[in-house]
Amino acid sequence: MNKFKYILFDLDGTLIDSGKGIINAVKYALKKYGIDETNEALLRSFVGPPLNQQFAKCYGFSAEKSLEAVMVFREYYETKGILENEMYKDIDKVLKHLKEQGNFLMVATSKPEKFAHNILAQHDLEKYFDFIGGSLVDGSRVTKIQVLDHVLKTNEINNADEALMIGDTKYDMIGAKNFNLKTVAVTYGYGTKEELLAAKPDFVVDTPTEILQIVKA
């Protein structure tokens, strides 16, 4: 018998290794502002969090300039970057197994919903999900807390004990804890193990297949 009925997945760094496309789009955007960024660690930090927040945090962009940078980012991402991704090994098998066991599978991502649908469809993964929730391109519903609030309310999930959030960054852990959800930190994504452990996840896994043991716990 499964302990958790509702399984919420982050997208970037959890289901899909989408770093290449995101990083290339960030480089493209920065060049528009005369910045030729070569610090890979800094560029990797853009995978997961809301982009406008990262532009402000890493380069001191104003709120207005940060939103403008996101629009420039999308010039590249919508046509090229969205195709530069790979599915993590065994993710399809994990999702298939969870679905066959009767779990209600959802995506909760800070990526715009239309991009999330597109990427999951590229790998024939969309069929496993009962609901895909993400941010909106107008700049609203951007943070993980806002996205989770939307996903939980829309699906009328009122018992936090039945839900599990799986993600690769502290934003996933912090967002989930805001709603008293149990959390799984995956170490194969883009968040550092140090930052993940500092966010005090309930479970930690190094591979996708380990998720199955937690769901059954």
How does this structure look, described?
This protein is of the alpha/beta class and 217 residues long. 43% of the residues lie in helices and 16% in strands. It has helices at 19-32, 40-44, 51-59, 63-77, 91-100, 113-122, 144-154, 170-177, 193-198, 211-216, and strands spanning 6-9, 16-17, 86-87, 104-112, 131-135, 163-167, 182-186, 203-205. Strands 5-4-1-6-7-8 form a six-stranded parallel beta sheet, sandwiched between helices. The chain has a two-stranded antiparallel ribbon with strand order 2-3. Strand 6, helix 8 (170-177) and strand 7 (182-186) form a beta-alpha-beta unit. Helix 1 (19-32) crosses helix 4 (63-77). The relative contact order is 0.18.
- Summarize the amount of helix as a percent range: 40-55%
Strand elements, count: 8
Strands of the largest sheet, in order across it? 5-4-1-6-7-8
Tally of helical segments: 10
Rg from alpha-carbon coordinates: 17 Å
Q: What fraction of the residues are assigned to beta strands by DSSP?
A: 15-25%
CA-CA gap between termini: 9 Å
Main sheet record: 6 strands, parallel
Which term fits the overall shape?
globular
Question: Which structural category fits the helices and strands?
Answer: alpha/beta
List SSEs in N-to-C order. EEHHHHEHEHEHEHEHEH
Query: Any low-confidence stretches, pLDDT <50, length ≥5?
Result: none
| Average predicted confidence as pLDDT | 94
Please tag this protein with its features:
alpha/beta; 8 strands
Secondary structure layout:
Blueprint: E1 6-9, E2 16-17, H1 19-32, H2 40-44, H3 51-59, H4 63-77, E3 86-87, H5 91-100, E4 104-112, H6 113-122, E5 131-135, H7 144-154, E6 163-167, H8 170-177, E7 182-186, H9 193-198, E8 203-205, H10 211-216
Helix pairs in contact: 1-4, 3-4, 7-8
